[in-house]
């Protein structure tokens, strides 16, 4: 190719835009572009469109009560129950035989729950929870992997008005204890174990160890027997009950759904932030459920007849909103897969798409990068023609991965929605609407109708298109978090203080700060550039560097540690740990292993450092602050930023040499 052609080619790569097919648009749930204006002109009443997707037991008085920002309330006075919206109404509307959940175990076994089956199970487990003493507003912790009992337990909690707090099964015992302590949770539902790459993992052992770290009384623990004969032979303790035995005891029982206020808590979800302690994000019944249902309808284009699959884990917010609450509220069929995408072979996901004729598939960029690495032969060997729409979430998607996904999974025919949102936002905020918008690989898209987002500088002034700045959200939305559990002050300081006039009662003076960097183009499309706080995003999993550091400094022989994210081909970011040893200890293989072990035990395998670099000092400013930016440059092999403000500039080269020696 001549130089000119290469240049042109490169420009085309950058500029490429994609349109949804006429066929997709013709069937889309939302395809009229006037929706943007309609929502803007009719704000906040526009959000009734979301609330109308639910059945309310009592009408709300007001769409939005913004009299006490940033403690916004939505659909105030409205009454509803999330489990009856996700289950009962479909049974009553003649869809009792429609499949609600199709579950695929890693070893190949399958389970199918119709809405009637789900109704029965949710009722029985709700009765069981009540009999264990769970009352309305008690927080029930669910420490469970991807087994059907997890959504059943969530909906059973919702039925009796007991907020759930799901703890990702891959998190450690210590992480479980921290979350139960923080939520004063006296009830736990867990399981004996589960399968990963064909091996049975002992989960109850971890749960028991976690329970030892709970500082208040635990009333009851329910244990699902997932492994059967492959189990680890644990005896259940005095307050531990077998799931199936309880279900038998409550066989056929019905529990009337508790009428919840729109603003009553539906669940808590812990997530990482700047400081060491995870934040308990509080979501409500009316606003959250409306928002999850609305975005599932408008963005994921879900119809009840669809088979829809989100490959996330329910232990994260994506699974809450887009495996459980959104899809089930709309009465569709949601697929759940227990295991890893490369077991037993790298076409497992495509085999599953083919098997269930999946219509809509939603995954993370990290997974797409792994698919690319494994090669197109895997998707090519399967019939993926049932797919109509694809989605991604969790981290920025590079245009190359976007195009691979479009071509090899979507057959250049399926629109892709690149959805930006957070645990705190409850649902999607920035993405194209697949039946309306032009897609630009790499850019998530414009804010959804009714969502008001801007890119600003440190003073809160809007920046020019193309310039990097900070993403802000300038108006509340129904799916937003209401506060951090029992910590209103931290809620304000984490999300609002940066850009708001915190003395003001005027909602216009309050601006939500998601802590992401971003830029906007002339068409109003937003490209997310990544976190601007001390949070790193490993394979779409959000981890606090402080949490990892505190696990590392807890290891004997470690004096100080700094953790940063370094670029990683598949994971997006990987954990780099720079460690100073204590006097008398060597930075040797033994200590490296103990550090990795320490992170494993403190948080879980997802947070394990990719690299541990021992160093005599960390680069510090004269005021003693660690210069993380430089450590990131070193991790990425980038040219080093300015070192002139350092107290010890010579150390950076030394660290750099060590990193090189290791790679
Ligand atoms: C990042 C996951 C770029 C972002 C739903 C955000 C994204 C954090 C995207 C939230 C996207 C999520 N493009 N970055 N489409 N989606 N992020 O709370 O940094 O686990 O702040 O919620 O993930 O992670 P969380």
UniProtKB/TrEMBL annotation:
<feature type="domain" description="AMP-binding enzyme C-terminal">
    <location>
        <begin position="547"/>
        <end position="625"/>
    </location>
</feature>
<dbReference type="GO" id="GO:0043427">
    <property type="term" value="P:carbon fixation by 3-hydroxypropionate cycle"/>
</dbReference>
<dbReference type="InterPro" id="IPR045851">
    <property type="entry name" value="AMP-bd_C_sf"/>
</dbReference>
<protein>
    <recommendedName>
        <fullName>Acetate--CoA ligase</fullName>
        <ecNumber>6.2.1.1</ecNumber>
    </recommendedName>
</protein>
<dbReference type="GO" id="GO:0043955">
    <property type="term" value="F:3-hydroxypropionyl-CoA synthetase activity"/>
</dbReference>
<dbReference type="InterPro" id="IPR032387">
    <property type="entry name" value="ACAS_N"/>
</dbReference>
<dbReference type="InterPro" id="IPR000873">
    <property type="entry name" value="AMP-dep_synth/lig_dom"/>
</dbReference>
<dbReference type="GO" id="GO:0019427">
    <property type="term" value="P:acetyl-CoA biosynthetic process from acetate"/>
</dbReference>
<keyword id="KW-0547">Nucleotide-binding</keyword>
<keyword id="KW-0067">ATP-binding</keyword>
<comment type="similarity">
    <text>Belongs to the ATP-dependent AMP-binding enzyme family.</text>
</comment>
<dbReference type="GO" id="GO:0003987">
    <property type="term" value="F:acetate-CoA ligase activity"/>
</dbReference>
<dbReference type="InterPro" id="IPR011904">
    <property type="entry name" value="Ac_CoA_lig"/>
</dbReference>
<feature type="domain" description="AMP-dependent synthetase/ligase">
    <location>
        <begin position="93"/>
        <end position="477"/>
    </location>
</feature>
<dbReference type="GO" id="GO:0016208">
    <property type="term" value="F:AMP binding"/>
</dbReference>
<feature type="domain" description="Acetyl-coenzyme A synthetase N-terminal">
    <location>
        <begin position="35"/>
        <end position="86"/>
    </location>
</feature>
<dbReference type="GO" id="GO:0005524">
    <property type="term" value="F:ATP binding"/>
</dbReference>
<dbReference type="Pfam" id="PF16177">
    <property type="entry name" value="ACAS_N"/>
</dbReference>
<dbReference type="Pfam" id="PF00501">
    <property type="entry name" value="AMP-binding"/>
</dbReference>
<dbReference type="InterPro" id="IPR020845">
    <property type="entry name" value="AMP-binding_CS"/>
</dbReference>
<keyword id="KW-0436">Ligase</keyword>
<keyword id="KW-0614">Plasmid</keyword>
<dbReference type="InterPro" id="IPR042099">
    <property type="entry name" value="ANL_N_sf"/>
</dbReference>
<dbReference type="Pfam" id="PF13193">
    <property type="entry name" value="AMP-binding_C"/>
</dbReference>
<dbReference type="InterPro" id="IPR025110">
    <property type="entry name" value="AMP-bd_C"/>
</dbReference>
